[in-house]
Each structure stands twice: as structure tokens, then as C-alpha cells.
Amino acid sequence: MSTVEIRNLHKSFGKLEVLKGIDFSVETGQVVCVIGPSGSGKSTLLRCVNLLEQPTSGQVFVDGIELTHPDVDIDAARRRLGMVFQQFNLFAHLTVLRNVTIAQERVLKRPRAEAVRIARENLEKVGLSEKAESYPAQLSGGQQQRVAIARALAMNPSLMLFDEPTSALDPELVGDVLQVMRRLAEDGMTMLVVTHEMGFAREVADRVVFMDQGVIVEDGPPAQVIAAPQHNRTREFLHRVLHPGD
Ligand SMILES: Nc1ncnc2c1ncn2[C@@H]1O[C@H](COP(=O)(O)OP(=O)(O)OP(=O)(O)O)[C@@H](O)[C@H]1O
Ligand SMILES: [Mg+2]
């Protein structure tokens, strides 16, 4: 069964066609990593999946519900999706705990005590139980990103979308965030991850999608797309990522 299905998705900004007919799906419980050069449309693809951008044409289904249908309850549909961005977007004036409870209470209408219980469970999952009463500015970037992951998980999403979650982090903080994501994958979370972390993609992804200039060039298991790419464009990209400075 697919959690996400994308059919012939197109997106233009004015005259610039950024997505030129994207088709793929993410099966329930699977991890799909999207790789590709800067400007190839990876973020736009993710933003179309959660309708932060309105696709020009095509269809997006999540849990069998068509998000692109004109009659869909977009707020309800979007609640199925957890999103983690490069920038963590935490509320600076709220504690870590409050950052993780606020949407549960306001959007899901959970009573405070339940929201706090679920927040603490998820903070434990990302290894930050001791930071519940801290403010974001008192945390490292990697810790803030893990709070953002806990905040998304607390909403019980069917799917987690990650857009380069580690690329704003100092190198020594990347590992902890990837470890949390790895554990999520092992726990069976369905994940769509834009990343430049080839080690993560190779070890954790069920499938790797290589995008270039608004199309999917290759889509397959990491052993194929990363280890034995079929297309020149994929080979050149991987060479640049794996051997920067060559
Ligand atoms: N809101 C927008 N308005 C106009 N053009 C946009 C908008 N968002 C993205 N674009 C353009 O769409 C193209 C794809 O951008 P996108 O951010 O999806 O690329 P990306 O693959 O995520 O790149 P990166 O690896 O640098 O994050 C770029 O040419 C970008 O300038
Ligand atoms: Mg991007």
C-alpha cells in the first residue's frame, strides 16, 4: 500500500517550469531519499506534497486521499504530514516542551495533560528528555532539529517529510540527527527525505530517487542508484557529492 502517490506532477513559477511531470510513490513503512543538484526541484516537490505550493497540474494522494482535489479539507489532509525543514522554525519564546505541545493543543485539540505526556514521549525518542524546560537558544542546532522532529512526531503523522534536515548543522552535530531519523525508519515510519547524506541514503533508504532539472532520472534501491547508476547525469552528480574538490 502506498502512503504517498504522485501522478504527473507539474509545477511552474511564471515561465519557469520546475517540475516537469513527476511520478512516484512511497510505500507504507518505506524510506525514500531524494537526491539531486541544487535547483533541480527537490524542495518544490516536497512543498507540493504538503501543498505549501499549489501544483500547476497533476495529483498528490496521501493515505489514498487526493490532496489536490478541489474539495479536499486541506487542513485535515495536511495534518497527516509531518514536515522538518533545514531551518528548525521553533518558537524562540517558548520552552522545548511548549514547542512540542502547542500544535497538539491548538490543532488537534488535545487536553494539556495528554499533549504533555505525548510531548515527553517524543522528546525521549529524540534523546532530549532533559531539555524539556530549556529554550531553543539554549540548545545546539542538532538539538533544536531533534525538537523539531519531536514536534512533528507528536502530531502522529502518516508520513514524515524532511528537507535537508542536517545541512544547516555543524558537521559534528549531523550524526545525532541522522541517528534519530534512522531509528524512526527502523520503527516503521514512512519517510520522504531530501538529503545530501549519501551514507544515510545508502544505509537507510529503501529507494533513492535522483532528480535533475525537474524530472526523475533514476528511481531504485540504493545499491542500484548510488552504487551502480545507469545514467551519466547521476554518475556526475554522485561524483561531485562523494568527491568534492576533484
Ligand atoms: N517560490 C518560487 N518562486 C519562483 N521560483 C522558485 C520558487 N521556489 C523555487 N523556485 C525555483 O525553482 C527551482 C527549483 O528550486 P528548489 O528549491 O525546488 O530546488 P532544490 O532542488 O530544492 O535546490 P537546493 O538543493 O538548492 O535546495 C529553482 O530554479 C528555484 O529558483
Ligand atoms: Mg531545496
UniProtKB/TrEMBL annotation:
GO MF entries: ATP binding; ATP hydrolysis activity; ATPase-coupled polar amino acid-transporter activity
Every ABC transporter domain range: 4-238
Pfam families from the UniProt entry: ABC_tran (PF00005)
EC code: 7.4.2.1
Catalyzed reactions: a polar amino acid(out) + ATP + H2O = a polar amino acid(in) + ADP + phosphate + H(+)
Location, primary (coarse class): membrane
Gene Ontology CC terms, in alphabetical order: plasma membrane
Location relative to the cell: Cell membrane
InterPro entries (UniProt xref): AAA+_ATPase, ABC_ATPase_HisP-typ, ABC_transporter-like_ATP-bd, ABC_transporter-like_CS, MetN_ABC_transporter-like, P-loop_NTPase
Signal peptide coordinates: none
Keywords: Amino-acid transport, ATP-binding, Cell membrane, Membrane, Nucleotide-binding, Transport
SUPFAM superfamilies: P-loop containing nucleoside triphosphate hydrolases (SSF52540)
The keyword Signal is annotated on this UniProt entry: no
PROSITE patterns: ABC_TRANSPORTER_1, ABC_TRANSPORTER_2
CDD domains referenced in this protein's UniProt entry, alphabetically: ABC_HisP_GlnQ
Membrane-topology descriptor: Peripheral membrane protein
PANTHER family per UniProt: AMINO ACID IMPORT ATP-BINDING PROTEIN (PTHR43166), GLUTAMATE_ASPARTATE IMPORT ATP-BINDING PROTEIN GLTL (PTHR43166:SF9)
Family label: Belongs to the ABC transporter superfamily.
Protein name: ABC-type polar-amino-acid transporter
Gene, per the UniProt record: glnQ
